[in-house]
Amino acid sequence: MPLTPEQLAEIDALRATPRPTLRAVSEGMEAHLYKAAPVLDHGFVRVIDYMGNDAAIVQAARVSYGAGTKKVNDDSGLIRYLMRHWHSTPFEMCELKLHVKLPIFVARQWIRHRTANVNEYSARYSIMDREFYIPEPQHLAAQSTVNNQGRGAVLEGAEAARVLEILKSDAARTYDHYEEMLSQDGQQGLARELARMNLPANIYTQWYWKVDLHNLFHFLRLRADPHAQYEIRVYAEAIARMVADWVPVAFGAFEDYRMGGITLSGKAIAVLKRRLAGETVTQEDSGMSKGEWREFTEVWG
Amino acid sequence: MPLTPEQLAEIDALRATPRPTLRAVSEGMEAHLYKAAPVLDHGFVRVIDYMGNDAAIVQAARVSYGAGTKKVNDDSGLIRYLMRHWHSTPFEMCELKLHVKLPIFVARQWIRHRTANVNEYSARYSIMDREFYIPEPQHLAAQSTVNNQGRGAVLEGAEAARVLEILKSDAARTYDHYEEMLSQDGQQGLARELARMNLPANIYTQWYWKVDLHNLFHFLRLRADPHAQYEIRVYAEAIARMVADWVPVAFGAFEDYRMGGITLSGKAIAVLKRRLAGETVTQEDSGMSKGEWREFTEVWG
Amino acid sequence: MPLTPEQLAEIDALRATPRPTLRAVSEGMEAHLYKAAPVLDHGFVRVIDYMGNDAAIVQAARVSYGAGTKKVNDDSGLIRYLMRHWHSTPFEMCELKLHVKLPIFVARQWIRHRTANVNEYSARYSIMDREFYIPEPQHLAAQSTVNNQGRGAVLEGAEAARVLEILKSDAARTYDHYEEMLSQDGQQGLARELARMNLPANIYTQWYWKVDLHNLFHFLRLRADPHAQYEIRVYAEAIARMVADWVPVAFGAFEDYRMGGITLSGKAIAVLKRRLAGETVTQEDSGMSKGEWREFTEVWG
Amino acid sequence: MPLTPEQLAEIDALRATPRPTLRAVSEGMEAHLYKAAPVLDHGFVRVIDYMGNDAAIVQAARVSYGAGTKKVNDDSGLIRYLMRHWHSTPFEMCELKLHVKLPIFVARQWIRHRTANVNEYSARYSIMDREFYIPEPQHLAAQSTVNNQGRGAVLEGAEAARVLEILKSDAARTYDHYEEMLSQDGQQGLARELARMNLPANIYTQWYWKVDLHNLFHFLRLRADPHAQYEIRVYAEAIARMVADWVPVAFGAFEDYRMGGITLSGKAIAVLKRRLAGETVTQEDSGMSKGEWREFTEVWG
Fold first, then answer.
1. Res A74: pLDDT
2. pLDDT value at position C1?
3. Which residues does FAD bind (chains A, B, C, D) (predicted)?
4. Which one of A124, B201, D126, D253 is separated from C220 by 20 to 30 angstroms, measured CA to CA?
5. Which chains touch A (3 or more CB pairs under 8 A)?
6. Which residues numbered 77-106 in C keep a CB inside 8 Å of some CB on B?
7. Residues of B in contact with A123 (CB under 8 A)
8. Which residues in chain C have Cβ-Cβ distances shorter than 8 Å to A113?
9. What is the distance in angstroms between the Cα of C76 and the nearest Cα belonging to chain D?
């Protein structure tokens, strides 16, 4: 993650001068502010700003005049209750602003989460940097043979080498051509908004992304999930580590009820109750399709 | 605005202990934090938290690594450019959290602004306070005779007295009955979620309301407007005064381009150009309807 | 539900003249169009328009050129898969527009669902009708003694009579006063936007409400739930019956996975697995709080 | 726009069988349904479904029981009034669903409009087609020398030829490599979700996009504007032609007040008033910056 010395100096400058505030503060998040947590080969996640902390969730839920109770126990119980019963509005009272550097094909998945604010680096206005995501060998996976949108075994030997060679050389060549088309040296130079169309989806872009905690939890549940594509999952995991330091109680409830939780259908509940009563249930008399049954038994045996 | 001594003490406690932060700070907004700005007879607006300042708008617009330029001039020019050209995303990078106490009929207008987060005091769960909005005499206006949704002259004499008497006595009686129905003294006591239905729309409720600056400007443009109902306008004006201290440059641009600005239709542009060329234009040859023409001449003579 | 003869005639007129369309049609929903399904004492739900059907969900999920497969089996399997795995966008491709008449205290809960379009009857512009929700005796419930936001036993005898008398007489008196303040007979007449503040929360309002199927399912899951207040639940149930006729396959999946389903926390999964293995687990060694354990055993014994 | 014979047959089949409906119908839009309006070299816009028409806007604004007035004049006046005064909710009561085929760099701009529903063809799940946007010679523009995000003169001669050659050969080569990496002929075959990263931003994707009329007008105002990039503007213009046939009255108001309209700042109003009074105003005493003055005089001379 090659931040330039100038960029590192700007970050250091921002971290050098604490200022007094009367707002709610999260010590855990202050420690992260502005620093770039590296992700993939050239990407990062940086916390630019945050609003609120665990106490702010409680304060909003109670529409209170002060800062909430002093008893941490009560706050924790309330936060877990709110999470368990799908209350969303108190969690929306916390907000996070990130600066993210990420490949375009990851950005295209990410942007599907619409309830967030985004300010992206403009390739109409500016020139893109020569930085491309090239997977590490252990992440160069074959198409899954059982799941149309999944990965199978890691590629090996000559095939892996061929793929890496293609990715690297196409990135280099398309970027050379991008520069060549833009060049105003002895020619007019193609408009930036047109030249960018030659760049592949593994080039890095950047954006500021701002989201409330409720919608962030939704993002993390979907994107830190094992079914998410590896290249977005590592971003979600990096963010999750920051959130754990920011709002530890809310994050604990999220881990228990959402990340570690599961949703059972009415049919699945019925099967489990029969099993608890000692009955042996087969797919045929479960009422579930084969696909549902397979997913069910992966969890419950 | 009768805050209890306990509530005032809680607010004082929150303002007594500044803590260090590395985040962007707005000195102007720190001065407002937690204090209750009174609105109407029992209402208020309090800033609970904020994210960002003028520099944060610039920083997001530039997707920058540091805190933006040092030259205030450049920042101001960019912010005005962004406002003039309807850029919304950089303004979305600032966020405000308010605690508001307001009559229910005002809350029902307010909630129509959907792009915001709300946590309202629950009358299913808790008992409402005995506080009702009773207009001051100078705001007791007659129905407009020209505008179906506007006000005319102020009521006078016996009629004004009758109206005030009705509002006060109905408020008192319905609240007495509310308490009587809830009472568990010698009876079961009606469920809170049912008893509340007897309370009129001028009773006060409270909520936490969180919104980004772009959507807040939209709210202010519609609700601080002379066409807005007086009782919501005073809330918008109280908020506007806080925003002016929070992000003075952005607020200045907002005042010039939105609050002080106007939108001309294609027809209105054509009429103005003919006038500038010395022509006298009448409604008949303006292409405008009578209503449009009246609104046009109110501004341009 | 007193629709006037004029209103009924307008509805009959709308139902009298089918017109040809090339759009996707749902026979089940055509049967509901425009008719008012009565809810509570004066309320109703009417379908004004709809977009899409079960096949449209499949068509969007496949980004297809035609109308989807001919095999209903495949479509059903895909819709159930999408529901099971929390895919939201294909369900967003169906849209419903309703005309609803409902008490204001119900409207205030309803509007909290922000991802919808609303056009409400304006009490600034128009005069409200003299129609109030008065609960039927069997819905006049006492405050729950175990749940702060729930209902207990039905009120009986003299207490029930007193409550009904209060609700009726306060509704009548406040409405009389509303009319008296508005009257321009021998006086100026108070502005409508002010007079409305005297009306209690059980007066009926009306709105057009438009929502996509994904967000409608979310609304139904929360509002057709036994924990929802009875007075909004009956609206949700009336809508659910229409949705069942509109998109029967999607509604079936929704019933199985959402309405009939349940979410287990990581701790709850662990307890169930221990039980399935024959172990007896107590609250103390479950890792759950008392509240969680009580909710858990209500389902699993 | 190479639709396959199978796709054209599917579209013909959908258009061949009108069915009766009781819903509001727009004859103008029925004529467009399912047909692919070609855009750029391989793209298109197809209307898949719509909800509402001009009368539905009026009906919602009046929260009416029937279909609105019979007098077209009244409806038109109301729609123009609603547009002039920035009422948004009645326009939200109409909805449009499109199937769009578009280059990825256009899709990335388009998706920034968040208040819409999207279902995109998945390159994790499926294999992309070999179709790339290659600009026509007259759209191969140089970088603007005055506007960082604009186009200047058209490229000519050898430079234009070089650019076209680059775009074509890089598209062909990266797609060849895409297929080569995916191939399972004698090798495992790279996962689709990884192989796609080699494809440039001018490859075509497809999506279903559904939006309400208010947000669609906002999209059209920004994207059918001369400042928008040509490659998205042609999509906006194709959609605008369909909307003009769908809701001709609302579209007429939109053209007059939005597309043909302009927003004046407070400073600009003051200058125009001075000019109307016969005064000559210069930039120096206008209170405007040079940039604002230049934009002002471009309109007003």
1. 79
2. 58
3. 89, 112-114, 120, 212-214, 218
4. B201
5. B, C, D
6. 103-105
7. none
8. none
9. 19
**Confidence band for A1, pLDDT divided at 50, 70 and 90:** low
- Both tokens of B174, joined, read 């319905």
Please check if D114 is assigned to a binding site: yes
Q: Report pLDDT for D66.
A: 75
Residue of chain B whose Cα is closest to the Cα of A57? B119
**Active-site residue flag, D223:** yes
The per-residue pLDDT for range D250-280, each reduced to its tens digit, is 999 999 999 999 999 999 999 999 999 999 9
pLDDT digits (tens, 9 = 90+) for C173-230: 999 999 999 999 999 999 999 999 999 999 999 999 999 999 999 999 999 998 899 9
Give the distance from residue C49's alpha carbon to the nearest chain D alpha carbon, in angstroms: 6
Q: pLDDT value at position A148? A: 80
Chain D closest CA to C33's CA: distance in Å?
7
Annotated binding-site members of C for FAD: 89, 112-114, 120, 212-214, 218
Q: How many CA atoms lie within 13 A of A148 on its CB side?
A: 5
Count chain B–chain D contacts defined by CB atoms under 8 A: 78
Q: Is B55 annotated as a binding residue?
A: no
**What is residue B256's DSSP assignment?**
I
Residue C72 has pLDDT above 70, yes or no: no
Q: Is B108 annotated as a binding residue?
A: no
What are the DSSP calls for B211-237, one per residue? EEHHHHHHHHHHHSSTTS-HHHHHHHH
Pure H helices in chain A: 5-16, 27-30, 54-61, 72-84, 104-110, 157-182, 192-195, 213-223, 230-246, 248-254, 266-276, 290-300
Residue of C33, C59, C63 lying closest to D121 (CB–CB): C63
User: Quick one: DSSP state of residue B301?
Assistant: -
Instruction: Give the minimum alpha-carbon distance from D31 to chain C in angstroms, rounded to a whole number.
Output: 9
What's the ipTM? Answer: 0.94
Which residue from D124, D149, D191 is facing A122, i.e. has the nearest CB? D149
Name residues whose C-beta falls within 8 Å of residue C172's C-beta, 6 or more positions apart in sequence.
Answer: none
Query: What pLDDT, on a 0 to 100 scale, did the predictor assign at position B72?
Result: 65
Cβ contact D65–C208 (<8 Å): no
Q: What are the distances in angstroms from CA A137 to CA A161, A230, B252, C93, D192?
A: 9, 13, 54, 40, 16
Encoding tokens for residue C150? 């729930």
pTM of the predicted model as reported, rounded to 2 decimal places: 0.96
| CB contact at 8 A, D94 and D51 | yes
D240: confidence class by pLDDT, cuts 50, 70, 90: very high
Question: CA A162, CA A170: separation in Å to the nearest integer?
Answer: 12
Q: How many residue pairs from chains A and D have C-beta atoms closer than 8 A?
A: 154
Output C149 or A27, whichever has higher pLDDT: A27
Q: Between chains, do B291 and D77 touch, taking CB under 8 Å as contact? A: yes
> Looking at the complex, does the CB of residue A201 fall below 8 Å from at least one CB of chain B?
no
Q: Residue A66 has what pLDDT?
A: 75
pLDDT mean over D85-101? 96
The single residue of B62, B80, B223, B294 carrying the catalytic annotation is B223
Instruction: Check A141 against D170: CB less than 8 A apart.
Output: no
Nearest in space to C268 (alpha carbons), one of A124, A84, D287 = A84
Label residue D236 exposed, middle or buried (CB < 10 Å: 0-12, 13-18, 19+): buried
Cβ B205 vs Cβ B127: under 8 Å = no
Cβ separation A50–B51 shorter than 8 A: yes
The 10s digit of each residue's pLDDT in B213-239 is: 999 999 999 999 988 999 999 999 999
pLDDT of residue D32: 98
Q: What is the mean pLDDT of residues B8-35?
A: 96
Structure tokens at A260: 């570690």
Beta strand D141-143 with D117-120 is unpaired
- Asked if the model's pLDDT at residue A92 lies above 90, the reply is yes
Instruction: For residue D210, list its beta bridge partners.
Output: D97, D117
